[in-house]
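Dock guanine; give full complex structure.
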Amino acid sequence: MYSLDLVIRSSFLHFIEDPSKCSNKLSSYEFLNDGLMIIKKGRIIELREYSDEDEKRFENIEDKRGYLVVPGFIDTHIHYPQTEMIGSYGEQLLEWLETYTFPTEQKFSDIDYARKISKVFIRELLKNGTTSALVFGTVHTESVEALFEEALNENMLLISGKVMMDRNAPDYLLDTADKSYIESEALINKWHSRKRLKYAITPRFAPTSTREQLTLAGKLKEKYPDVYVHTHLCENRNEIEWVKELYPERKSYFNVYDYYGLSGDKSVFAHSIHLTDDEWDDISKTNSVISFCPTSNLFLGSGLFKLSKAEEKNIRVGLGTDIGAGTSFCQLDTLNEAYKVNLLEGNKLSALKGFFLATLGGAIALSIDDKVGSFTEGKVADFVVIDWAVNDLQELRVNNSNDLEDKLFSLMIMGGQQNIKETYIAGKRKYCLD
Ligand code: GUN
Ligand code: ZN
């Protein structure tokens, strides 16, 4: 008998590469109907077919037959301070920020409040099978301190940063260019690469930063090239017009960020819906990343993201929930809406591509695919146990499915939080639906 942390028998699905880039989609993934995953010290030692000898070989096999185990979901754009204002009525982006977002974010100057919401937020991620996320804080360092403390507690791979914002917001939410540099640098030194945590330089979006602030954000990125950049781009038409007025000297909205040294392979641009051809080219050339946030884009009436264009331009894309403009923490709900957005754009989002985006695709987008996103030997054992069907209708639909892809498609369209049975971080169970 070997000494191991965890041995699981179940069905397993994980991706090896992007199914839309593979000449034979069957070689983009591995599916084991009756498989065995062996975990030691929080890492995957092996995933293979189950054999009858395994019963003698291993002492305690956790039997999860009938369920589907996939790598933990990855959320590439979410705002934790907006958890409590999810589903706020009736506005598009700029009015929505003024009416609901800014007053809510004010509360995060209080570290106790930030700690309380951090706990709720991380719990929601885990309930929904999300094991890693790129997360906006608020302008207050307290907001980031509280979130990192909680993520550290749960041993999560989480990336976050303090918002930099020195104009065009209420006074109570503004910093200054210098203050934002000093505070961000202090947070980088304290938190970046502590256990599984990473820092993201986080200018909210071009309209709320002066040239001076973006210059300093770029200096910070130059000094700490390993940290991320996280911001918003071309989400809403009025926002884009505003950026043109504020930065008339720049050739495009994306060029504002690019000019100040904020583009690159660890720079994530949420939304990127209304891009010009020039912007598509520049995002591609700089190897920057896009976060596709369908529930948010529909909820705020922002528009339809062109996933096929990103594929054509070889741009990495991950899925984002964008809570609280997004309406669900769940990547299954997000895929449901992503499918519809794609169809309205004249494209079909296959279930394989959908599950790729929610797992390995998200990991590639965040440059964390050396650690998570699939079940390759040596990766950290962050994973989710999914129940294929939790009600009569799902049961009927799943039993009526022709093959694996059809079954996965039914999960992506009909599934939701209730299908997430368990969530594991580094081989430890952190959530169980009871
Ligand atoms: N653009 C600038 N700030 C925000 C925000 O908080 N949410 C969304 N969806 N877009 C933004
Ligand atoms: Zn956002």
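Observed: The CA atoms of residues 398 and 410 lie 7 Å apart.
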